[in-house]
Design brief:
The chain has 286 residues and is of the alpha+beta class. It folds into 2 domains: 163 residues, no CATH class; 84 residues, Alpha-Beta Plaits (2-Layer Sandwich), CATH 3.30.70. The chain is built from 10 helices and 4 strands, in the order ααβαβαβαβααααα.
């Protein structure tokens, strides 16, 4: 009796019936929801990192000199320019102050505002002459930005770390979800897999078909989640940036490169998790 030839490569478009075993609705929907959360986490980490960098570069070491509204700035600016160790001394326009206060106080044209001078000192400068000058000015007050900037920077870095931690949790949950879906597919097609395995089908062929199917479903789900995430992130940027950065939102404010990688990352997670899960199961077969 002729020996039945061993099956080396499975033929056909779907010999395992994966289109029926691995549903094309529930898994993409769940992956899409996680992709939406991942997009929010990515945008949060990106925004917090940019905000921290902006604060460190823009205001670290700066001192604000507050003077009564009726003070004439010209002679004071001249005196500041003659002091050693002062890099810059620039008055803050009243229009700028009102823009900064508008998110909290609204438009209050009649609100009297003090005169503000933004001063930058050299880190190694002797501040004694500057402090003596400030004490001689009636009603003058100093507000050092260094401590406030350090606290704000720590807060921004904490938010960035939290966003990255959330992103890591989302990846782990996605991998666990794909592993569960793979095991469900194995249970649904166990007899077919066993027959093909006994006939000599390669473990790599069986696992590869599962992995490709799940990778495609994850990519489609992530793409759908990304489509929902982009308008939400843009609406959030429109509302938040005028308050946080005192300017209108721009297209470049969103982390487009990282967001564009979401479908590919989801496909890779789905493909790799399914491959590892199914190969581990196949190795336990006799």
């Amino acid at each position: 009796m002729a020996e039945i030839p061993r099956v080396r490569r499975m033929q056909g478009r779907d010999p395992l019936g994966l289109r029926r075993a691995l549903a094309d609705r529930l898994l993409p929907a769940l992956v899409g929801a996680m992709a939406l959360l991942a997009a929010l986490a990515i945008a949060g980490a990106h925004g917090a990192g940019n905000l921290s960098q902006r604060w460190e570069q823009g205001t670290s070491g700066q001192i604000l000199l507050q003077l009564p509204r009726e003070t004439s700035l010209s002679p004071i600016l001249a005196q500041l320019a003659d002091l050693p160790g002062i890099l810059t001394a620039e008055p803050v326009p009243e229009e700028r102050l009102r823009e900064l206060l508008a998110p909290w106080l609204g438009e209050v044209p009649g609100l009297p505002l003090p005169r503000i001078v933004a001063i930058t000192l050299r880190p190694d400068a002797d501040q004694t002459p500057f402090l003596d000058l400030v004490q001689s000015l009636p009603g003058a007050q100093l507000e050092a930005q260094g401590a406030a900037v350090r606290q704000a920077t720590r807060l921004a870095e904490g938010l960035r770390a939290l966003s990255l931690a959330i992103l890591g949790v989302i990846v782990l949950v996605a991998a666990a979800l794909v592993a569960v879906a793979t095991r469900a597919g194995i249970s649904a097609r166990r007899d077919t897999i066993m027959i093909l395995h006994e006939l000599g089908a390669r473990d790599g062929d069986i696992a590869g078909r599962f992995a490709r199917r799940l990778g495609m479903l994850c990519a489609l789900g992530a793409l759908g989640g990304l489509v929902l995430a982009v308008p939400a992130l843009w609406a959030l940027a429109i509302e938040a940036l005028p308050v946080v950065l005192a300017r209108e939102a721009m297209v470049g404010d969103l982390p487009w490169a990282q967001l564009a990688l979401l479908p590919a990352a989801a496909a890779l997670i789905g493909w790799l998790t399914a491959l590892i899960t199914l190969r581990a199961w196949l190795r336990r077969l006799p």
